[in-house]
Amino acid sequence: MSDQRTSFHMTPDQFRKHGREVVDWIADYYERIESLPVLSRVEPGAIRAALPADPPRDPEPFAAVLRDVDSVIVPGITHWQSPNFFAFFPANASGAAILGELLAAGLGVQGMLWATSPACTELETHVLDWLVDMLGLPPAFKSSAAGGGVIEDSASSAALCALLAARERATGLRSNESGCDGRLVAYASSQAHSSIEKAVKIAGIGRANLRLVDVDEAFAMRPEALAEAITRDRAAGLVPCFAAATVGTTSSNAVDPLPEIGRICRAEGVWLHVDGAMAGTAAVCPEFRHLQAGLELADSYCFNPHKWMFTNFDCDCFWVADRAALVRALSILPEYLKNRATESGAVIDYRDWQVPLGRRFRSLKLWFVIRHYGIAGLQHHVRRHVELAQAFARWVEASPRFELAVRPPLNLVCFRHTAGDAFNRELLERLNASGRLYLTHTTLGGRFVLRLCVGQTNTDERHVAEAWRMIEAEAADLEQRGAPRERE
Ligand code: PLP
Fold first, then answer.
1. Is 299 helix (H, G, I), strand (E, B) or coil?
2. 269 in a domain, yes or no?
3. 386 & 435 share domain
4. How far apart are CA 211 and CA 254, in angstroms?
5. Total number of domains constituting the chain
6. Among 361, 391, 412, residue at a domain's last position
7. Is the pTM of this model over 0.85?
8. 154 pocket-lining for ligand 1 (C-beta < 6 Å)
9. Domain assignment of residue 23, yes or no
10. Does one domain contain both 325 and 404?
């Protein structure tokens, strides 16, 4: 033990004091968050310009650091936890998750092996088994069957791990030994998240061997187009190995038809990965589970509690139906990691289920969330978000100047003013510049579309109603100013 008079460390008493200050700071932040502009207004470089050029030579008081959080950091924050945040997909957080995260940091566990913290591994396995039941997922994903779940940092990592397992299954582990021969082919719809393309590049499949399958008028994958593409590739001597389907695409929340896609993949021996990054949380409510019908035909599945399940970033839950296929693809056991528990074969070592070796104790925050809310609490809030988004969609439909771009299945509404792309762009800019809400856009069918996603933890009726009031008022003002209109 070093003498506290000569140590630079924070003492337990200082930690208690500053810890309370930080928790108070966070609680105050949530209380005042609606007064802050949702989208940060700083110019590029502004935050760095406000920071000292050199690091401090001598220790600084904690109060000075917290002061700079207020004066330098907060202006550069886009407030994802504002109830007026309707952009992208949410990355919602909650008190329970934040405290779970704090505890995980406090324990400072690195859970690469079962032996390096049995609770880190076993809680994760257990919570992911719970979620199989909570979300009505196929029983094959349970650890008591041949499958199992793991927490990855992101849906992107889950897709990559699924693809690596698919690659090795298709080549009998040969690509791990001698690389890909350029014949493996992967499939996803043209609406799939860009993480699939990234995974294809990283895994050595190559962008040229990713087929972007056509979609229907609801932006869902056309299964017959998938079947045709696979047939064409086989005829050309290629090896179809992986298909990614999406439940809730990023652009419009489109749901690919899993039963048909699954049957094709099964018949062709193609690994089917299903990405439910945001929409997957909806399955906590039985009435939304029809969206994932056919999931029993998937080899792997993921969704992000860090999007819509009140669990702060990062936390992606990833399941496989055959854990052996994943572990065979990713397992490496150098001498320095060998231990009796691993050799016994009785434990899970999650380092074999992911790309990095080290791993955080992420299940703690998810466990806190599930226990704090209970299934009933999670259902309540998810239902509320869907109800609010559906109400917003009805207001759009009833408006003479706006239209829905597509019927919203859940909590994402894609809509546009009828005056055309330039008008909608201008409208979006003005709304976001107001600081009072944050929306983003996409293109659907080649047209510029506004997206409003209801999923922030504290978003309630008054926020959605106020957003609609502002959108209508801003649009009326733009119309009066004679903003650009296009004939469509
Ligand atoms: N898949 C879908 C459908 C998404 O919408 C997103 C992100 O919004 C991702 C994957 C990537 O998520 P992550 O940031 O967890 O990699």
1. coil
2. yes
3. yes
4. 18
5. 2
6. 361
7. yes
8. yes
9. yes
10. no
Separation of 168 CA from ligand 1 center, angstroms? 24
Instruction: Look at residue 56 and tell me if it is in a domain.
Output: no
Task: Clarify whether residues 220 and 125 are in a common domain.
Answer: yes
Cα 92–Cα 95–Cα 97 angle in degrees, nearest 5: 65
Boundaries of domain holding 319: 110-361
Beta partners for 320? 148, 300
Rg (CA), the chain: 24
The CATH number assigned to the domain holding 218 equals: 3.40.640.10
The answer to whether the CB of 278 is under 6 A from ligand 1 is yes
Cα(2) to ligand 1 centroid in Å equals 46
Q: Does 164 fall in a domain?
A: yes
Q: Are residues 349 and 242 in the same domain?
A: yes
Reported as a single tens digit per residue, the pLDDT across 176-222 is 999 999 999 999 999 999 999 999 999 999 999 999 999 999 999 99
* Angle value at C-alpha 129, between 126 and 135, nearest 5 degrees: 135
pLDDT tens profile 99-115: 999 999 999 999 999 99
Nearest alpha-carbon partner for 71 in 43, 41, 51:
51
Ligand 1 neighbourhood includes 304 CB (under 6 angstroms): yes
Residue-wise burial string across 108-147, b where 16 or more C-beta atoms lie within 10 A, e elsewhere: ebebbbbbbbeebbebbbebbbbbbebbebbebbbbeeeb
Burial class (CB in 10 A: 0-12, 13-18, 19+), 254: buried
Q: Is 162 in the pocket of ligand 1 (CB under 6 A)?
A: no
Structure-block tokens of residue 83: 């109830």
* Ligand 1 site, residue 451, Cβ cutoff 6 A: no
Q: Are 99 and 107 in contact (CB under 8 A)?
A: no
Kind of pairing between the strands at 412-417 and 447-453: antiparallel
**Binding site membership of 195 for ligand 1 (Cβ less than 6 Å):** yes
Q: Which residues of the chain have pLDDT under 70?
A: 1-5, 483-484, 486-488
Q: Which helix (H) or strand (E) holds 432?
A: helix 421-433
Q: What are phi and psi of 51, to 5 degrees?
A: -100, 145
Q: Are residues 290 and 395 in the same domain?
A: no
User: 94 near 369, Cβ under 8 Å?
Assistant: yes
Question: How far, in Å, from the CA of 157 to the mean position of ligand 1?
Answer: 10
Q: Which atom of ligand 1 is nearest to the CA of 248?
A: 3
Place of tokens 């719809």: 189
Q: Say which DSSP state 112 is in.
A: S
